[in-house]
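Reply to thread "Modeling small-molecule complexes from scratch"

Following up on the discussion above, here's a worked example others can learn from. I took a protein sequence and the SMILES for zinc ion and predicted the complex. Inputs first:
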Amino acid sequence: MDKNPTISFDFLHIMSANLSKYWTPVNFFYYSFFASNLIHLWDIYLHYRQHKVYNQKHKVPVELAQYVDEDNFSKARIYNLDKSNFGFIRDLFGLIQKNVFLWIYMPARMWYLSTNLTLELLGREHEIVSTMLFFFLQSALSTVLDLPFSIYSNFVIEERHGFNKYTMRFFIWDMIKKFLVFQPIVAGLVGGATYIVIRFEDQFFLYLWLFSITMTFILMVIYPSVIAPLFDKYTPLEEGSLRTRIQKLASDIHFPLKNIFVVDGSKRSGHSNAYFFGVFKSKQIVLYDTLFEREEEKPQPESTDDSDDKDKLIKEDLSNKEQKKKSGCTEKEIVAIICHELGHWNHSHIYKNLFISLVNMFFIFMIASIFYKDRVIFEAFGFRGEKMPCFIGLLLVIENIFLIYFEVFNFFMSIISRKFEFQADDFAKNLNFRSELINALVKLNKDNLSFPVYDWLYSALLHSHPPILDRITALKKID
Ligand SMILES: [Zn+2]
């Protein structure tokens, strides 16, 4: 009778002993190496599929003929081909860099550098300070490594297609400012999180999760009102018919509108956008100045950066003359775009997304809390010695164990996001903005040189917005 339990116990014991035989630093290292390369190559493959579409589609497909003209189609094709070629080089560099960092044990090297710096600064060991330094060094390094790509992308590719509005001086100042503003925020978050992991040990996941929720809400409140204005000028939309129309729409659907701002996005880029922000009963709508209809009179760069701009102004002037066409949206179309945005509000899309992310985060923290002190993982990444940095261990676990999970999760999130876009379009349609929204989508597509044809797999996995033709078809459908 009592033989069965013994057998099953032996079986489990043998199985776990057999499995733990494979749980070694070398094996974990190779798992990480193969999994991250596999994902990176898969991503390159998806971009390659879309790249082929840019290469092969020279003519506007029949179903799009009434929305896109040949001239714009070919401009968009060349722009996206340009971006895609550059994307391959950037991806390839990212792949090489990732592998080099893995093989030279970069995280461990960075950690020992941080602990040595802490010793010199404080005269003693301090895990929280060292972890903050670790993140500072890491972000400084990645900013420097990314700089040439960022410069090339803005000043060669975007510039070539008339989108770049940066001057070199403004670009560098913008970057320094970003670094100075975000580093203290990151340091605070990392410091707080490290403290929690040290203080609550194996139970940390619950407290770290609560900390993440609190910080998310605090940042949601202070970002638009305190941080974003450090970078851009938010001017209240002047009194007039557009303002009245937006206010009427807001009051019709009981949207708690507090203010409408126009942001000077045109000092960075010609791309256009609109969004709303704010919590609870005080919401604000933001419109990019690039959204407004204009006779291709491109706005002047910031007056503070005047010295090295002469060349640029002359160039801009030439490109203006080449394509003196109207761009931007009419008042009615802008209201239709806002109505789409308010559709997101009406369906609580932000809170739904937030809820999914928070549940997901809880699940990840909980599983990671089982492994975060596992020496096998630390040793796989070159950490030696007695004391292991617990928050960095936690991130190594999350980054590596969940590699494939994140890919799948992102895929589901993009499906949800596309569903939300249709819902928001539907909301605008039901408020009689059908034709204005279609016109606005066509114009935004044209002004931003979006290429309207997609490879199905690329689109299914990576697109947060449905292809324009699908949106128009859905808008035209009569319920
Ligand atoms: Zn949307």
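What I'd highlight from this example: The beta strands are 234-236, 257-263, 274-277, 283-288. DSSP finds 17 helices and four strands in the chain. Questions welcome below.
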